[in-house]
Write a structure and sequence with these properties.
Length: 468
């Protein structure tokens, strides 16, 4: 109502001025009236804006705690992370789910032909993992990362595990960096990679046997130094707890069932000498404009639970080569070759606590050092955008039979075996993949087995770039 009265008042004034202007005879009077008319129009607009601001009640500001990136005004894509932010801190949220379907002629799939904790574990369908990834900036000094994995075992029981959760510095001088929390140990290449970044459905045999079904990862701290060389060169040193299922071959109690003929008699960490120590050096070189080579050496040391003064040493060498032409589009075509070799020296203590013959009587196993080794080599060929063909060969064995094996029979956990695995992967986009793989397994003392696995996977939200 006020707005209408104001408008009609202004209109009457303007009309009066216009009539006066028509009757004016002098040019200066006409110009004066025109000037007054312009001023009146400007006042009218100003009054309307002021009245509108009074009639509209201002809305209280609402803090934004979650937004998609880019802004909500644009169309959200699966590659855009869901970001929770406040000031300079933020957290990107993503998820990757991996499943497998297939079967095998083996009667002991889980822990037999398949040694990895994320491998297909039964005929039919396997939930290899649904992994929630949280990563972001904590403040100007730290960034954080967490990987929480949901799985189903072969019995259909659900379980959740904290795969990684660590804090890492981002502003230390001298190219130094510190990471602390639960993290994958810097040992070789495959150990630090999450399953969805693997080039194959399952883990290599040497990793499953010598590092354990989940690899090496435990709470601890890791120090790294980016060496100031003309090429990429980085040195790592870590210290972690030595007990638990993610420290296989060290102080893992293996559920009381024994390991290499012995049971864990030492329990948990008591002193600094009971910790698990690891070190790694990696260097990368550009062989040409189209070829890059990365090589590394790793070692892990720590006590095992078979005796009061027994330890485990694991050594590794790895090499990675990749060719990609200068005119590659979206990463294709490419050829990559990756090889890792590992050796484990397990100092086993004397034991009389395990029944090795099945007669319900504890048998004696002497003190000795058991040496096991193996390697894998894999070749990937990205021959067309979205299509990758792969071939991997695995081999694991021991240097000699243990004294306890001479007495009580061969240990399947040390027996020689090899495997050939061709596969074909289709990436419809970078957010999904379908992979078909065949495994030919040959195990000493058991025979050959054939397995076929179809893997399918999807990603939502943020996901870190794959390591070179």
């Amino acid at each position: 109502m006020k707005r209408k009265i104001l408008k009609w008042s202004v209109i009457l004034v303007v009309t009066g001025l216009a009539v006066g202007a028509v009757g004016a005879q002098q040019t200066n009077e006409v110009e004066q009236l025109r000037k007054e008319l312009r001023e009146m129009r400007e006042r009218m607009q100003a009054l309307e804006q002021k009245l509108g601001s009074i009639e509209q009640k201002p809305a209280a500001p609402v803090p934004v705690i979650a937004e998609t990136v880019p802004s909500a005004a644009s169309t959200w894509k699966p590659s855009d992370p869901v970001r929770v932010s406040k000031g300079g801190a933020y957290m990107d949220i993503g998820m990757v789910a991996t499943f497998a379907a297939g079967g095998s002629t083996a009667s002991d799939i889980e822990g037999g032909t398949q040694l990895g904790g994320h491998d297909p574990n039964q005929r039919g369908f396997t939930v290899q993992g649904a992994e929630l990834n949280l990563q972001g900036a904590v403040d100007p000094y730290f960034r954080g990362n967490a990987n929480i994995v949901f799985q189903l075992d072969s019995g259909g029981e659900s379980f959740i595990e904290l795969e990684e959760a660590w804090l890492e510095t981002v502003s230390l001088p001298g190219n130094f960096q510190i990471r602390a929390g639960q993290y994958l140990t810097e040992f070789g290449r495959i150990n630090t990679q999450h399953p969805h970044t693997w080039g194959f459905v399952d883990a290599p045999l040497v990793s499953g046997r010598l590092l354990g079904e989940d690899g090496i990862r435990n709470p601890g701290a890791r120090f790294s130094w980016l060496v100031p060389t003309p090429f990429y060169s980085e040195l790592f040193f870590g210290v972690q707890n030595s007990q638990g299922g993610t420290a296989n071959g060290f102080r893992d109690d293996h559920g009381g069932e024994g390991f290499l003929g012995r049971v864990n008699t030492q329990g948990r960490v008591k002193t600094a000498g009971d910790m698990l120590y690891s070190t790694r050096y990696a260097a990368s070189f550009d062989l040409s404009d189209t070829q890059t080579l990365l090589a590394g050496a790793s070692a892990a040391f720590g006590p095992n639970g078979s005796g009061a003064d027994t330890d485990t040493q694991i050594y590794g060498m790895d090499i990675y080569w990749k060719w990609k032409p200068a005119n590659a589009h979206a990463g294709f075509p490419f050829v990559s070759w990756q090889t890792e070799g590992m050796l484990r020296r397990y100092q086993a203590g004397a034991s009389t606590t395990l029944d090795l013959t099945g007669d319900s009587v504890a048998d004696f196993a002497p003190r000795e050092t058991l040496t096991d080794w193996g390697f894998y080599s894999q070749l990937l060929y990205g021959f067309h955008p979205g299509w990758v063909a792969g071939l991997r060969g695995d081999y694991v064995t021991h240097s000699k039979m243990g004294a306890y094996e001479d007495l009580y029979g061969a240990d399947a956990e040390r027996a020689m075996r090899w495997r050939i695995s061709p596969n074909l992967t289709w990436y419809p986009t970078e957010f999904s993949k379908i992979r078909l793989q065949y495994n030919y397994d040959d195990r000493d003392g058991i025979g050959t087995d054939h397995s076929v696995w179809l893997q399918f996977e999807f990603l939502l939200g943020a996901h870190a770039a794959h390591k070179f």
